[in-house]
Specification:
The structure is a single chain. The protein is mainly beta. The strands form four sheets. It has a seven-stranded mixed beta barrel. Strand 16 and strand 17 form a beta hairpin. The radius of gyration is 20 Å and the shape is elongated.
Length: 289
């Protein structure tokens, strides 16, 4: 039994292993997956001395608790929360050194949705198609964490960062998503397209890693009937029969049969990962490059 391992004491509502994902397999029906808030996952890896592609834990709303079998350095970022080691408060957003057997408790999010926990050496579960990410839609990668699970850790490669705290963006009070219209905006009435880029929406509680669902004005179709299934990309804004837009996130399907009214700029999707239910959303139309 190796001492380079992490024991899960409290798995939380939904905690998964994530890295930068498995791009390049959409033609096989495999989505990219990976950390929803990629910049934060990269940041916490830097804080503990890991390369950007090392696997981390992605928590949802109420954090998790883990116990390393050997001394490690950890960093917690993303959704602001209380962080404790053996019951004592420690820094959020900074490297923290933990002795073997200590308990790291990542608390409930005070804002935002998803927290990221990096451990020196990275989470070293077996990769699938080049990635250690959990994909909730396809089932690829390790299963979501459960109490009592044991995760292997890799060997640290460099020293942790020497910082007191690393600045991180606050969870959005309003989510502004820049979109390029198309390819199927002509399936909607002109009034619906104007409403899409001018009216206010809210994040639905039904959102998940597959898609950010919205509440707000329904978009009226100009064309009835069914659309043949076609390829879907990260950030595609698909409109199902209820007329409420859905923004596809990391675990999205690679094909779909509902019209895509627009595509969100990739750099805006990290903020979508931290938009709590009820957060106002504005879709801002921008020109094609």
């Amino acid at each position: 039994m190796t001492d380079r391992a992490l024991c899960v004491v409290r798995a939380g509502a939904l905690t998964t292993v994530q890295d930068l994902g498995r791009p390049g397999h959409a033609h096989l029906g495999v989505p990219r997956s990976g950390a929803l808030d990629g910049p934060t996952a990269t940041l916490v890896n830097r804080l503990v001395g890991n390369p950007p592609e090392a696997a981390v834990l992605e928590t949802t709303l109420n954090g998790c608790s883990v116990r390393p079998r050997s001394a490690v350095t950890v960093a917690v970022g993303g959704a602001p929360c209380a962080v404790r080691v053996d019951g004592s408060p420690v820094a959020w957003g900074a490297p923290v050194h933990m002795p073997a057997g200590a308990l790291l408790d990542v608390g409930t999010a005070r804002g935002g949705v998803r927290g990221y926990v990096a451990v020196s050496g990275g989470i070293a579960v077996e990769p699938v198609l080049g990635s250690r990410s959990t994909d909730l839609l396809s089932g690829l990668g390790p299963a979501p964490l459960t109490d009592g699970a044991v995760l292997p850790l890799g060997t640290p490669s460099t020293l942790p960062a020497r910082v007191d705290v690393a600045p991180q963006p606050a969870p959005p009070a309003e989510l502004v998503l820049r979109v390029t219209l198309g390819p199927r905006d002509d399936w909607f009435t002109p009034e619906a397209v104007r409403a899409f880029t001018s009216r206010a929406y809210r994040v639905s509680p039904a959102s998940n890693r597959i898609g950010l669902r919205t509440e707000g004005p329904a978009l009226e179709r100009a064309r009835p009937g069914e659309l043949p299934s076609e390829g879907m990309v990260l950030g595609a804004v698909q409109v199902p029969p209820d007329g409420r837009p859905v923004v596809f996130l990391a675990d999205h399907p690679t094909t779909g049969g509902y019209p895509v009214i627009a595509v969100v700029r990739t750099e805006d999707l990290a903020a979508a990962a931290q938009a709590a239910p009820g957060t106002p959303i504005r879709f801002l139309g921008v020109r094609r490059h």
